[in-house]
Amino acid sequence: MCVLLFPKIITVNAFAVLIISDSTAALFGRRFGRRKFLQKSLAGAVAFFCSAVIVVLVTPKIEGIALEYLIGIIGAAVGAVIESASTKFDDNISIPLGIGLVTWALYQWLLPAVNIYGIG
Fold this sequence. Notes:
By secondary structure, this protein is mostly helical. 72% of the residues lie in helices and 3% in strands. It is elongated, with a radius of gyration of 14 Å.
């Protein structure tokens, strides 16, 4: 669905965060999760967010300006909340859709002059 809905750069970033951060959250949450955050552990949510920020910092950006990184970090935070809240709906679908929607909307709002469709 993400491939059909969002520009390639947003889809790649959302999938990269899903692959790395969802696994990281599960590993840390099971090992260190003592405090609850929404439906899962705070340790898992923090691990998701920290690893997602690293992914955002190393994945491609369109122009490489600071605001693009901020948009990615906000998307990472949204992904962490979605991952922590999901129990009934498959987070392998909801995480990239949530990150993609927020990232796409922020690009449209904050960087309307950047051509997010021009890559690939």
